[in-house]
């Protein structure tokens, strides 16, 4: 059983059996060809599906914003997965569910792929945590 201890009300140290960790990442990935298809009801569907995936794989989404052509996430996660594996899980599960729920998306994409294969993953320190969180939350206002 894991115990979570707050550090300065920002990040948390999590104590498990034989390990202690505090891992936060700022992750960004884009739609294929930067197509602006994540809008209207699809943006909200992305948020809801990402929350479900987070619960299923036991990580916490601290901040999230879905822009028309990319997604920003601030994650607090366990060392259980490599970050590259977590991103594959999120992108793959999200694309599969979006294509099932919104088949019209495939007609907007030439190759049938929803996501660009690349992504950006940056570690977040205690000092930059609030700045990154604010940056993600203010994306729609720009």
Can you tag this structure with a few keywords?
4 helices, 29% strand, alpha+beta
Task: Explain what the structure shows.
This protein has 142 residues and is α+β, with helices and mostly antiparallel strands. It has a single domain (24-141), classed as Transposase IS200-like (Alpha-Beta Plaits, 2-Layer Sandwich). The protein contains 4 helices and 7 strands. The protein has helices spanning 41-57, 83-101, 104-108, 129-137, and strands spanning 3-7, 11-16, 19-21, 23-30, 60-66, 70-77, 120-123. The strands form 2 sheets. A 4-stranded antiparallel β-sheet has the order 5-6-4-7, sandwiched between helices. The chain has a 3-stranded antiparallel β-sheet with strand order 1-2-3, with no helix packed on it. A hairpin with a 2-residue loop joins strand 2 (11-16) and strand 3. Helix 1 (41-57) crosses helix 2 (83-101). The longest helix is centred in the middle third of the chain and has 19 residues, at 83-101. It is globular, with a radius of gyration of 16 Å. The termini are far apart. The mean pLDDT is 88.
């Amino acid at each position: 059983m894991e115990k979570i201890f707050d550090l300065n009300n920002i990040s948390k140290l999590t104590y498990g059996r034989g390990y202690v960790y505090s891992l936060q990442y700022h992750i960004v990935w884009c739609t294929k060809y930067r197509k602006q298809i994540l809008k209207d009801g699809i943006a909200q569907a992305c948020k809801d599906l990402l929350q479900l995936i987070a619960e299923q794989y036991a990580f916490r989404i601290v901040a999230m914003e879905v822009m028309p052509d990319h997604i920003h996430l601030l994650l607090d996660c366990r060392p259980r997965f490599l970050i590259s594996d977590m991103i594959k899980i999120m992108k793959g599960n999200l694309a599969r569910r979006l294509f099932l729920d919104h088949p019209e998306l495939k007609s907007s994409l030439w190759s049938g792929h929803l996501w660009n294969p690349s992504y950006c993953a940056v570690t977040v320190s205690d000092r930059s945590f609030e700045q990154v969180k604010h940056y993600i939350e203010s994306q729609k206002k720009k």
